[in-house]
Every structure is written in structure tokens, then in C-alpha cells.
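User: Second chain of the day. Same drill as before.
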Amino acid sequence: MLSIPTLWTVFIVNFLALGLIWAYVMRSYPNLAAARFWTGSAFAAAAGAAIAMLRFAEQSLLPLLAGGTVLIFASCLAAMGIKRFYGQSVTWRGTALITGLSFAGLSFFIVGYDSMPMRIFVYSLGQSVPLALTLKLLLSRPDGRKNPGARLAGIVAIFIIAIYAVRAAGGLLHIGGDPAIFRSNPIQSVMVLMLLFLSMAWNFGFLLMAIDRLRNEVADLALLDDLTGVGNRRHLLQRLTEECAKSERSGEVFALLVIDLDGFKAINDTHGHAAGDACLRHFTLMAQTRLRPGDMLARTGGDEFCIVLPASTLREGAMIARRVLDACRDDAETCVGADVPIAASIGVAQWTREIGQFPDRLIAAADHALYVAKNGGKNRHAVYEPAPPLVPEHQAMPDLTLSKHAQAC
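Assistant: Same format as last time:
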């Protein structure tokens, strides 16, 4: 069995290495605010362990007081990092309270009333409270996404708390011999070794959390249009596939708007591509102000946009189309000087049983309606209403054609 000083040396080296890793992550990904807390936690833990090791060189208990307090502070920093990772506000009040009370308790049972079991109890409590306060965040998916790293960190935190609870109970009940963690005996060696392993696993869980978050951010960026910041064609197809599958199961309809900006090529040719880009961004902002929570606006390429309207009928889709057109017309009336007015044509279609789980059929229907709006004079909308089947429904062909009753305004 390794000696206690050797294990504590490994403990210090381990946290220094973790601190360097987190420092690199913090520098490489400055938007990951939690990395700053986890970097400080690792270095603080290394410093606290190094201070506590001075106990081997002198008989004073002051190194244990200072080192133990710093180690508790390190646990508080790690807990703050977890809260920051999930977007919760963090304050130093809780950290100062836990650290200060732990320092006061350790000081009392060193100077006022010398009691090793009570010192162990205070230290174990100070280490366990920050961990316990983060378990709900780590195990309950507060951001709605499954994160294996968070689950690992939560499980490891439970084991760490359990070890501190067993150690505190053993000290108070005088079970397991001398409870001093700096005394070389098999029980203490195993305990330090387990805490060393679990601390590494805990930080590994944090690393997995960070990797998963960064991977999701990259995936989200792959679904966004660079110019306007709304969804791109890939995101649209993904959303339409989900909505079609949901409607196929429940029978609840939804609507799709296909939008084309009128005369956009002329804007680029006359005013330049910078003006064209400004028009696309401006239209995006205007359209978003007319949408409801849950609606999705996507740019599918060039001057083409789509809007997905969940749980909406054809009539509701037409209403949203009129809102978008009214916004464009109101904005065009205020244009003066070098301002470029924006006009749009919109095709509206609704999911039906014939469309099923094939979003391309819904897009084709909305495109047909857009074609009618364009031919009808532009700056208007048209709706797609499939003609009633001429044969029994179970024999009807799934091919969609534009009804003669398509409406335009």
C-alpha cells in the first residue's frame, strides 16, 4: 500500500494537471464561462493539498486549518462552475458562507476545543454541501438535453459525498481506528486513493459536459444561415420531417409558407450586393416580428424563405402571410432617399394525409401557390387547396395539383 505522503503528492500533481487542462480549455473557448471556475477549482485544490501537506513537516495544526479551508473553497468553485454551465446566476455569497463557516468550525475545534472527530465532521460537511447543491442540476437535464458527462459527474459526486459521510460517521463513532487522514494506515490509504480517483472522474465528467456543449453549438451553427441568423435549408427539412411525422401520428395539421422577395435581382444589380444583404437581414427582422412563439423562419437560399407554422390550418397560414405582407408594405411606404423597398410573394400550403411523411410534397404544394402569387402580379399571397379526389379515397393518387380555387390577394 502506498504511503499517505506519496498519495497526497499524487493528489497535488493530479490537480495541477487538471488545472492546466482547464486553463487551456478556458483560453481556447472563452465563451465557456464555467471553465474559469473549474480552472480556479483545480488550482485551488492543488494549493490546498500542498498547504495541508506541511502537516508532515511540523506538529502545528495550522496547515490543516488553512489547507482544509482552501480545499472546501475549491469545491465551492467547482459547484459555481456547474451553475454557470447551466446558465444560472452565480454569486460569491454562498461560497463565502460555506467557506467562512467551515473555517470558523475548524478553528474552534483546533484552538477552542481540540477534537479530531469534530474537525473531520466539519471538513466533510464543508466538502459535501457544495456537491449536494449541484446534484439536481447534474441529474435532471435542466437544458432539456441528455448529457452523459453531467450524469457521470452527478454519480461521482454522490460517491464522494458517501465517502465523506462514512468518514465523518466513523470519526464520531470511533469506528475504523484512527480517523486522521494523514496517518499511514490501510483505511486512510484506501480513502485517499478513492478520493483521488473520484476527483479525476468528476473533472472528466466536466470535460464531457464541455465537449457535449461545444458539439451542440457546432451542430446548431450548421443549422443556421450565416447572413440572417435564422434556420437554413437543412434546418427547415429537419423541422418539416419532424412536423410531418408528428402530424402523421396525431392527425393535427400544420402550415408552410414559401416566400420569394420580388425584384431582388434588380436590387443587387442596381444597389450592389451589400444592399441586397441588408434587405435580406431587414426582411428577416420584419418577418420575425409577425410570427408567433414556436413558428420557424428559415432562409432556403438566395432571396427565398420558408415559415413553418405548427398546429396551424390553411386559414391561419394565410393570416400570417397577410401579416408579413402588411409589414413589407408599411415598411416600403416609409422608404425615402436611398432606402430600398422590400416586396414579397408568398405561397401557403397545409399538411394533409396525402402528404404524409414526405415534406418535399408539402414544399411542392407551397411552391405551386407561390407560382400563382407571382403570376397574379407579385406582392401578394396565394393558398394551395388540393382538388377533391374523383375516386374513392383509398384509391386516390398521392400526387398533388393546384386547385382552381387557389386564393390570391
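DSSP finds twelve helices and five strands in the chain.

User: Great, on to the next one.
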